[in-house]
């Protein structure tokens, strides 16, 4: 019997629907595609420079900064030599904070320190309130060494710790300690640094310390992965997905600490929008090319990080996720990304397991940093 084009189309759609229903793998791909499409449409409206300018007009107030005086507060920022971290360091210095730049490269760290000092000439002693430390956050021995040196350096308890350093690295690679690089940089290192500094942060002046995770809206496309943390079981390795999972794990870590740590420390996560910085240029070149004209400046990307560090405590919700100086939803509609606190605790237990396993290795491999803490 002859079949018209409409009948053939119907048959094709029906066959595709059956295939999606019977094949979990295909269903997973379709769902991921839908989440990604939803994310891109929403992102083009909200995460771009246009989105920032609209939100600034609608919700930013001059008084957000009016009472901010961070004098005497020590702010630690990982990956502060570039992009968002660099701009956050500059703004927080202008608000009076003592800012510690935690950089993995001695050369890039010194260059950032020099540029910041040149940019802050008129500020009262701002240049002398900048400190540079070497820290490769992907290596636990480096994290441990930094924590020891910070304490031995006689610095006061950190008031703000900004987990800003981030990578999206393809192909899959391991650190010198044998841990997948994206996970090591984006999650394990920040977790270890938080654990090491937390006991002192509880004693920070005013009982108002903060830990801020600079996460990514990419996490909205992923549920919480609490088992395969190193993306070892799924093939092929997909750095974009691993990065998004890591960013979801950061949000979950903030939730864990908000539920269990002292309420003298707030745990917050935020996302900066789509920002014109090296990570986007190098890790997502085709996305970068297509969106370049719409991207936020690094200053705009740093805005909410600075706001979270400086805003009055009563404006903030412990464990909250923020975007453009306002609480943001942790899940997109129909995205199937919800998880329970039991999943969060499973993630935390896994991270503790990594620390226990790697601790002996860390103790053996902790030579002094080549870069002393600098004024
Ligand atoms: N740009 C965006 O559109 C966007 C969107 C969402 C989220 N984010 C997040 O924003 C944060 C800042 O990124 P950015 O956009 O400002 O990009 P960036 O300019 O490339 O900055 C990334 C920083 O992380 C540092 N870093 C990487 N691995 C490190 C390690 N193992 N130890 C210490 N530092 C390390 C880099 O140091 P080197 O200079 O030595 O490489 C650099 O200073 C990241 O967490 C990123 O995931 C960015």
Automatic annotation (TrEMBL):
Pfam families for this protein: adh_short (PF00106)
PANTHER family, sorted: DEHYDROGENASE/REDUCTASE SDR FAMILY MEMBER 12 (PTHR44656), DEHYDROGENASE_REDUCTASE SDR FAMILY MEMBER 12 (PTHR44656:SF7)
Protein name: Dehydrogenase/reductase SDR family member 12
């Amino acid at each position: 019997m002859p079949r018209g084009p409409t009948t053939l189309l119907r048959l094709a759609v029906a066959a595709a629907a059956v295939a999606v229903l019977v094949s979990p793998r295909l269903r997973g791909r379709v769902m991921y595609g839908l989440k990604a499409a939803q994310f891109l449409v929403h992102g083009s409206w909200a995460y771009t420079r246009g989105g920032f300018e609209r939100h600034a007009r609608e919700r930013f107030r001059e008084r957000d900064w009016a009472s901010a005086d961070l004098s005497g507060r020590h702010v630690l920022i990982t990956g502060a030599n570039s992009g968002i971290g660099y701009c956050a360091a500059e703004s927080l210095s202008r608000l009076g904070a003592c800012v510690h730049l935690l950089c993995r490269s001695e050369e890039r760290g010194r260059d950032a320190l020099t540029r910041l000092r040149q940019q802050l000439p008129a500020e009262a002693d701002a240049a002398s309130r900048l400190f540079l430390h070497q820290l490769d956050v992907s290596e636990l021995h480096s994290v441990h060494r930094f924590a020891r040196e910070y304490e031995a350096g006689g610095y006061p308890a950190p008031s703000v710790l900004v987990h800003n350093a981030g990578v999206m690295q393809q192909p899959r690679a391991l650190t010198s300690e044998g841990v997948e690089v994206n996970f090591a940089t984006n999650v394990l290192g920040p977790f270890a640094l938080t654990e090491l500094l937390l006991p002192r942060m509880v004693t920070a002046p005013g009982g108002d310390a903060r830990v801020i995770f600079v996460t990514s809206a990419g996490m909205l496309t992923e549920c919480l992965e609490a088992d395969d943390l190193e993306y070892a079981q799924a093939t092929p390795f997909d750095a974009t997905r691993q990065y998004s999972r890591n960013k979801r794990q950061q949000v979950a870590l903030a939730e864990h600490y908000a539920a269990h740590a002292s309420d003298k420390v707030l745990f917050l996560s935020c996302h900066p929008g789509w920002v014109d910085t090296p990570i986007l240029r190098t890790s997502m070149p085709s996305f970068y090319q297509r969106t370049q004209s719409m991207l936020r400046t690094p200053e705009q990307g740093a805005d909410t990080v600075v706001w979270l560090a400086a805003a009055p405590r009563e404006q903030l919700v412990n464990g909250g996720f923020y975007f453009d100086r306002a609480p943001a939803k942790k899940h997109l509609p129909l995205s199937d990304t919800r998880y329970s606190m039991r999943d969060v605790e499973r993630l935390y237990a896994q991270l503790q397991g990594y620390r226990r396993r790697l601790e002996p290795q860390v103790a053996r491999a902790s030579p002094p940093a080549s870069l002393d803490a600098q004024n």
